[in-house]
Amino acid sequence: MIRVELTLEEAQLLRQVLECCLDDLRDEIRHTDKKDFRNRLKSQEESLKHLLQHLEREDLKAPT
Q1: 2-19: buried (b, 16+ CB within 10 Å) or exposed (e) per residue?
Q2: What are the angstrom distances between the C-alpha of 33 and each of 21, 42, 45?
Q3: How far is CA 42 from CA 30, 45, 48, in A?
Q4: Measured in whole angstroms, how far is the alpha carbon of residue 29 from the centre of its chain?
Q5: In the chain, N or C terminus with fewer CB closer than 10 Å?
Q6: Sequence-separated (6 or more) residues with CB below 8 Å from residue 19
Q7: Which three-class secondary structure state does DSSP give residue 2?
Q8: 3: left (phi over 0), alpha (psi -120 to 50) or beta
Q9: Which pLDDT value is given to residue 51?
């Protein structure tokens, strides 16, 4: 397991970048005809969603 420490600002920026990538990826999934490629994209989508969930959990733990 790899651990990365981020400032609050860095975490917010990373979340924004991941959300943008997720939006782009969903668009690509909708326009993909090849099943194998779509399945790989869906796997990447799940990984991105997991990363975003992890960032959100860490935000809840961060002192305000």
Answers
A1: eeeeeeeeebeeebeebe
A2: 20, 13, 17
A3: 10, 5, 10
A4: 15
A5: N
A6: 52
A7: coil
A8: beta
A9: 94
Structure tokens belonging to residue 32: 């993909």
How far is it, in rounded angstroms, from Cα 4 to Cα 60? 17
DSSP code per residue over 35-47: HHHHHHHHHHHHH
Structure tokens at 36: 């194998």
Residue-wise pLDDT for 3-61, tens only, equals: 889 998 999 999 999 999 999 999 999 999 999 999 999 999 999 999 999 998 877 67
43, 63 contact by CB (below 8 A): no
Contact 52, 18 (CB under 8 A): yes
Continuous segment of H or E residues that includes residue 7: none
